[in-house]
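[recover] target loaded
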């Protein structure tokens, strides 16, 4: 027995060194994931406290670690939801809804959606003093409750008229919508709105740095819409390509303020190769630190129109795994830092909380340890 033990001892040492070496090797593209994999559950302020608790508990119990939540009216109820999420150990990406009328002068009138889309405030009317005062008040309460915000995203889809009142909604669809900024109907107001937005981002950075618990929170630019020109024409709603829109913000000093660029990815139902091409083309402007800014996909989703129980999520799961493989390639290159799936339970076709449980596609979308079904 002594002789066998002496023979095995050097082998054990060799194996220990070998495994330490293997674990130190850099991960391949299939193993590298974005730093933050999460889920969207916006507008919790519209729910009762009991429903807020139920939804967030379901999310946490499903193994999800990161959530994108909204700071919206009523703000006190938004903060209640943040408190619950924080107590459940969820890391929070906080989207600040810039449509909050408390950020605008009392006489500011929203741009009409002509009954086809909601009316929305014009960014050019944003009062930066009001924004600072309201944000400071909200952050003071959040900080006083000991809540730590992981990242903050001021605004949502501001390259699209659904969320930016300086972009037009046509009274009747049918006209060609803008392809470049020079085609925007009210270019002067649109430019003033961009200036106001960058001012709001700067204020957000300053107010976060004044907190005790969220001073190191990352700051992400508004997640931009990937609505196509064809869809915009069909809807009669102005929009600009995300890359072109970001160039306008960068000209105004955005890069000195943010840690990443927000982008939304809704590729529709395509085969796996087409999904990869779509995501790769859309994320072309995302760059590693030092060469630009990495992206945060703050919304992404694949629809499943089936509503029966038990849910048949097989086709959506295949598509979701294909998208995640492309995300992994961008993460491996340092070009993608986060991906938050849309949505938990509010959008019938996109939701992943189905039939009282996290659906198979939802598990594939939010699992922080797998890519393409293979465990890391």
């Amino acid at each position: 027995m002594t002789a066998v033990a002496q023979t095995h001892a050097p082998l054990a040492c060799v194996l220990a060194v070998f495994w330490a070496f293997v674990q130190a090797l850099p991960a391949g593209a299939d193993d590298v994931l974005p730093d933050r994999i999460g889920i969207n559950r916006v507008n919790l302020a519209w729910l009762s406290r009991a429903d807020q608790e139920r939804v967030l508990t379901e999310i946490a119990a499903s193994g999800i670690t990161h959530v994108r939540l909204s700071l919206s009216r009523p703000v006190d109820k938004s903060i209640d939801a943040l408190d619950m999420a924080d107590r459940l150990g969820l890391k929070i990406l906080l989207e600040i809804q810039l449509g909050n009328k408390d950020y605008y002068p009392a006489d500011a009138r929203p741009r009409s959606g002509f009954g086809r889309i909601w009316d929305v405030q014009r960014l050019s009317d944003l009062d930066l003093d009001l924004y600072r005062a309201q944000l400071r008040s909200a952050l003071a309460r959040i900080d006083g409750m000991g809540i730590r915000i992981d990242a903050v995203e001021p605004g949502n889809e501001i390259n699209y008229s659904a969320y930016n009142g300086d972009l037009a909604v046509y009274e009747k669809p049918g006209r060609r919508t803008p392809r470049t900024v020079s085609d925007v109907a009210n270019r002067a107001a649109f430019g003033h709105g961009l200036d106001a937005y960058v001012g709001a981002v700067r204020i957000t950075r300053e107010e976060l740095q004044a907190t005790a618990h969220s001073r190191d929170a990352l700051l992400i630019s508004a997640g931009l819409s990937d609505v196509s020109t064809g869809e915009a024409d069909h809807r009669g709603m102005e929009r600009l390509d995300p890359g072109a829109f970001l160039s306008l913000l960068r000209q105004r000093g955005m890069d000195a303020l943010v840690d990443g660029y927000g982008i939304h990815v809704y590729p529709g139902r395509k085969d796996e190769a087409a999904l990869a091409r779509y995501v790769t083309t859309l994320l072309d402007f995302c760059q590693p630190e030092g060469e630009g800014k990495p992206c945060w996909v703050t919304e992404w989703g694949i629809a499943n129109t089936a509503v029966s129980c038990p849910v048949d999520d097989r086709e959506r799961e295949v598509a979701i795994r294909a998208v995640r493989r492309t995300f992994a390639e961008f993460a491996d290159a340092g070009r993608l830092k986060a991906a938050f799936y849309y949505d938990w339970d509010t959008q019938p076709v996109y939701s992943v909380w189905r039939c009282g449980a996290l659906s198979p596609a939802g598990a594939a979308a939010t699992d922080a340890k797998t890519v393409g079904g293979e465990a890391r």
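[recover] notes: The CA atoms of residues 267 and 278 lie 7 Å apart.
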